[in-house]
Design a protein that fits this description.
alpha+beta; Cytochrome p450; 3-stranded antiparallel sheet; 18 helices; binds protoporphyrin IX containing FE
Length: 405
């Protein structure tokens, strides 16, 4: 273990971060690191500190004035790569602001994400799942991400928002680039611009041809009460699209990969589907879809686990690291499908706790049930450890998942 500054964008780190995180947790509560975009900041390594940090109002989403964090997008694209008019149209969302703005913005869409409203989507999600699996039936091999894990959540979020299916492939390309952030290189700026142009056109359309979808509802709030600014409106749509696109895909793909990497797990779940709810929580803990929280900025000098953090310092909370902390999870490096106590931080904690958690859980429940019953003999088409993880710091997901059906 050395004390040198670690480059979080280093592909070697990203290909297998768990042993590195284990070293960091042993060495201290926070780790100094080079963040994507070139600034230095801190990563919180241990569970209890991570949980506390996620509710600490002194760790703010407000731009720090040095441009190093608060204005970043949900995908943590470096602010410098984004033209100002584009940045303004995507950065005024709930995950980028503190109360009271956060409270106001979150309240406006919360009603659409209650457990009851989400449960009502079940038949639709089951239909989409069946259609996708029907299309795979008869083939011998497939990339399970392309054929299933990616299109399922995308179709669900697009339906929730009322986005036409013809436009969904474009969205995949743009949103991949957006969450990859600096790793997307030249693709980032044009992708952001295309996405914002699309969102603005969509909102203009809902203004004239409103329906009863979530987007039309948000437009009305904007127009009637003036409680949402135009920038807040486009930013909200941007956040929901990116969050809805890029996370659940990893829950489905990482979970399937974990099951197929050790056949006994796949068979155990097939034999007893009632294990699924705890198994899904364990996938979230063990190989969670999100590696670190989004940025916080210290608004004053403070301490994390006894280490001084200076006002203005960017802080990331290491969700993947916290979820493998052996002081909180006995046998933290073992995947336990029926783990009883599992207060993982994969959905975050505190006021920014994931709004889409009930939706993600429902999609996963439906997806795994369908996969296990429709393709009982499914296996990996390549050695489990030969599949690379996607670049980028925010997300933790496989780049492909080749399977034999
Ligand atoms: C397995 C899938 C998902 C995971 C692991 C996940 C994880 C997270 C995490 C860790 C945060 C907090 C980030 C932070 O504090 O920096 C968050 C926030 C959020 N997520 Fe998710 N998410 C998932 C799916 C979704 C879906 C499907 C949606 C919407 C359709 C969604 C919408 C949101 C929103 C709007 C926020 C911001 C909440 C706020 O700032 O108050 N998420 N998510």
């Amino acid at each position: 273990m050395t004390s040198e500054i670690v480059d979080l964008a280093d592909p070697a780190f990203q290909s297998d971060p768990h042993p590195v995180y284990a070293d960091w947790r042993r060495a201290g509560p926070v780790r100094r690191a080079l963040l994507p975009g070139g600034t230095e900041g801190w990563v919180v390594t241990r569970y209890e500190d991570a949980r506390r940090a996620l509710t600490d109002p002194r760790l703010s989403k407000r731009a720090s004035g040095n441009g190093s964090g608060g204005s970043r997008t949900a995908g943590q694209a470096p602010a410098g790569a984004t033209p100002p008019e584009i940045g303004a149209a995507i950065s005024r969302h709930m995950l980028a602001v503190d109360p009271p703005d956060h409270t106001r913005l979150r309240r406006l869409v919360s009603a659409a994400f209650t457990a009851r409203r989400i449960e009502a989507l079940r038949p639709r999600i089951e239909r989409i799942t069946t259609d996708l699996l029907d299309a795979m039936e008869g083939g011998e091999r497939a990339d399970l991400i392309d054929a299933f894990a990616f299109p399922l959540p995308i179709q669900v979020i697009c339906e929730l928002l009322g986005i036409p299916s013809d436009d969904r492939d474009d969205f995949r390309e743009w949103s991949n680039a957006v969450v990859a952030g600096s790793a997307a290189g030249d693709r980032l700026a044009p992708s952001l611009k295309a996405m914002v142009t699309y969102i603005q056109a969509l909102l203009a359309d809902r203004r004239t041809h409103g329906g009863d979808d979530l987007l039309s509802g948000l437009v009305q709030v904007r127009d009637e009460d003036d409680r949402l600014t135009e920038q807040e409106l486009s930013s909200m749509v941007f956040l929901l699209l990116v969050a809805g696109h890029e996370t659940t895909v990893n829950l489905i793909a990482n979970g399937t990969w974990l099951l197929l990497a050790d056949r006994a797990r796949w068979d155990a779940l097939r034999a007893d589907l009632s294990l699924l709810p705890t198994a899904i929580e364990e996938f979230l803990r063990y190989e969670g879809p999100i590696e670190t929280s989004t940025y916080r900025i210290a608004t004053e000098d403070l301490e994390i686990g006894g280490t001084p953090i200076r006002a203005g310092d960017p802080v990331l909370i290491g969700l993947l690291s916290a979820n493998r902390d052996p002081d909180r999870f006995p046998g933290a490096d073992d995947l336990v499908l029926d783990r009883a106590q599992n207060p993982h931080l994969a959905f975050g904690h505190g006021i920014h706790y994931c709004l889409g958690a009930p939706l993600a859980r429902l999609e996963a429940q439906i997806a795994f049930t369908a996969l296990l019953t429709r393709f009982p003999g499914m296996r990996l088409a390549v050695p489990a450890d030969s599949i690379p993880w996607r670049p980028g710091l925010l997300l933790h997901g496989l780049s492909s998942l080749p399977v034999c059906l």
